[in-house]
Amino acid sequence: MAEPVEVDVTMSWPGRHARRLPLRLSTTGPINVIMGPSGVGKTTLLSSLAGLVRPAGRISVGGEVWLDDRCWVAPERRRVGLVPQSLALFPHLDALGNVAFGLDRGERQAHALAMLERMRVGHLAHRRPSTFSGGEAQRVALARAFARKPRLVLLDEPFSALDRPLRTALVADLTALVAELDATLIHVTHDEDEASALGGPIHRL
Amino acid sequence: MLQALWLSLEISVLATIIALGLGGALAWLLATRRFVGRDLLDAAITTLLVLPPTVLGYYLLTGIGPASAFGRMFEGVFHRSIAFTRLGAVVAAAIGALPLVVRAGRAAFETVDPTLLGVARTLGAGRWRTLWSIHLPLAAPGLVAAGLLAFARSLGDFGMTMMVAGNMPGETQTAALFVYDALGTGDDYFAGGMAALLLAIGLGVAYAVITLERRRG
């Protein structure tokens, strides 16, 4: 079931070039696309939801408060899957190590391998990210983000560097995974076609 | 001559371990945390680089010498003193190497992409697991370079070791002090031999550091 996401925060950067950036988002469905010009705060919004920055205001997901005046839930307790624009695959771990990183000890390896195979990159299990192609790296990053069965998946222009056929294939895999794992997706993109292919409402910042 | 060299290596290894432990923790703190007094701590560590070794030695003696509160307490507990012993030489060399470790270590921690650390947190890793599993392994080449620099700095320490540990053959006379003594007594052959050995070790360490930095960058 999709978890409603409510964000009403203001990010402040103090100092000589002080700046305040109000960010608002309200979603109800499982797939949500965020679009907007550069510098409007799309990445900051995802970082706020992931708990990597701590703005002032309020964030709630599925009725549970993650941030307000009195409370702040640490990133490791939020159960979000984040794929940043750089993908941020751990360069010293192989694909299996990357995906297994977020899993509990029990069936860590088996589950990680199953997830890689689900994303059609099982053959990369024992290779390091420096040897991946762009598309392979995206698939491993998605496998890692989804492996923990996250409540919320945050994707920051993950397909921007890929050509159109590969992007179409990945969007299809992504929407299938969101439905299969019952997660809520917040997907930042600049690409109108990608936004329409995902099929969810478009929120413009 | 070999005795002084062996003693120097022993002191340098111990001093490097201490400087890496303490300096590595300070480097991580300065690279990743914002806290009151951060700039002051940074300035204090940098000061260790620019103060004359005799001044550092003076303050170290004031802090851990037999007349100091810490020195008396240490003697009361362990029945031995720090000043004018091998332990004093280790402490002096470690303090001399500390700012190098902090500067190189801080650069090593800061070169790790913060997004990697953030993603590790979203994958359920707390601060400590993120440090052990991601930050430390990725900063490791830089930390090894910091350790090598600390070792070379410890091996070459002269002023502070002389002030804090003295110059006792077999006990606190390190290779650098041996060169000084040998020149003073006209043993040019031994002074030249030890100087050449120290030069070779210094060059080897510098070459290893440069190679590590090239691999990292």
- Identify the overall geometry of chain A: globular
Subunit organisation of the chains: heterodimer
End-to-end distance of chain A: 25 Å
The helix count of chain B comes to 10
The top-level CATH class of chain A is Alpha Beta
- What's the CATH H-level homologous superfamily of chain B? MetI-like
Can you tell me about this structure?
The complex is a heterodimer of chains A (205) and B (217). Chain A has helices spanning 42-50, 95-100, 108-118, 134-147, 164-181, 192-198; strands spanning 5-13, 19-27, 31-35, 56-61, 64-67, 80-83, 152-156, 184-188, 202-204. Chain A has 205 residues and is of the alpha/beta class. Chain A has one domain (5-204): P-loop containing nucleotide triphosphate hydrolases (Rossmann fold). In chain A, a hairpin with a 2-residue loop joins β4 (56-61) and β5. The longest helix of chain A is centred in the C-terminal third of the chain and has 18 residues, at 164-181. The model of chain A has no long low-confidence stretch (mean pLDDT 89). With 217 residues, chain B is mostly helical. In chain B, α6 (114-122) runs antiparallel to α7 (127-155). Chain B starts with a helix and ends with a helix. Chain B has one domain: Orthogonal Bundle (MetI-like fold), CATH 1.10.3720. In chain B, 81% of the residues lie in helices and 0% in strands. Chains A and B meet through β6 of A and α6 and α7 of B.
